[in-house]
Amino acid sequence: MNTEIHTLEPKEVWSNFAALNAVPRASKKEEKVIAFILDFGKELGLETYKDKTGNVIIRKPATPGMESRKTVVLQSHLDMVHQKNTDTDFDFDTQGIQMYLDADWVKARGTTLGADNGLGVAAIMGLLQSTGIPHPALEALFTVDEETGMTGAQGLEGGILQGEILLNLDTEEDTEIGIGCAGGIDVTAHRAYKEKDVPEGVEAYRIVVKGLQGGHSGMDIHKGLANANKIMNRLLFDGFESYGLRIASLSGGGLRNAIPRESVALVVVDKTHKDAFIYEFGEMGRDIKKEFQTMEPSMEIVAEPAEMPQRVMELGVQEGILRSVYAAHNGVYRMSAEMKGLTQTSNNIARVEIGEGQIKVSCLTRSSVESSKMDLAHALRAAFELSGCEVEFSGSYPGWRPYLDSPVLKILREKYEALFGEKPEVAACHAGLECGILGQHYPKMDMISFGPTIRGAHSPDERASVTSVKKFWKFLRAILEDIPEKQ
User: What positions carry a catalytic annotation?
Assistant: First the structure.
């Protein structure tokens, strides 16, 4: 199925991407891809090793005539976000990604593509394999677990890398040169509750919110996309307030760094309110779809008869958690005053789980300003503590502060203009890049980020532009030819 991908140009990138995508590589389950990259480096006869965290470092000497140039670290992460459509039969633990070509886009069948950050990994692999591309000494740094905590970057020890310049290949717009990013923190609310017998004289319904676009909870958070957890909470809150709806179970969203696309709840409603409930539910569903009709044309909101559950939530806890989720901020919290158009602080209510006596709500709060990040985190904590939840902060990582006087930025700007006849957009992003963490370990390293155009990252709509990958590969090679001399 992936045969046509191997034939795309540049073959150095696409063939390696296809090989990489044949290897399961979920965050925190990177054993197979780590082994794959270790074997890759060793088969090339290059210095290759794995650090104690699982990161893989491969060193390649400079090509003849480039020995006096500064050593460059090429960095990308091995893991990918695993998301699939509910009607897609796919096992991420055992199957390779099934890719296909659609005009200028490479896509996956019903799953995430893994272009984030697999295309960066593949480009580095192409450079390590190359025999005719001029370059200085290279250190390839393949980090693990970027998508769910950046523990690979956090665990990298100072002193391991020798390079003076780091090129992070994890930006998703080929017109952009990244010089900064947001930091983040996981905010998790949880509590236990008592389950009660299902009241007599009720009807059971399965409520489904689906068909949303989803997307990257950093890069796409400003677009006004619908959050399935917030939509579901509106429906449940109205059903409870108007008709005494009781919740048996709820499962919405998935990974913290993906805007939730789907949510499913099992509920019961008194039979005497059946007709009124269905009518009002339909009216509210139509109103919500109208609200989001521009951004979410495929949204579906349905309530269908279901098998009767055995237990439901205790009433007081149900009311409390519905109010907390309603109160909890989702989306953009503040825009940057320093960089026009940049989201400064945001939150993604990524996952809501209710069932078997347990509630868990998982959020990812991002900001390029540490104090603003913690301000929003505490606001979320307050909203959930008001309903009796315990709230945990974890996985905090710093942002990457922009450095406009970066020498390598000057090189990239000039090279981009010379190659493509236009100025690049120099920007910070609201995604979490590993540069902020790596900069703590290597404070004197000059860092920059760029990459090919990718759309819909962290969702089954993820796709990568073939034309853009050609541009990215040309840009990357040209940069390496122009790395300055060691001082």
Answer: 79, 146
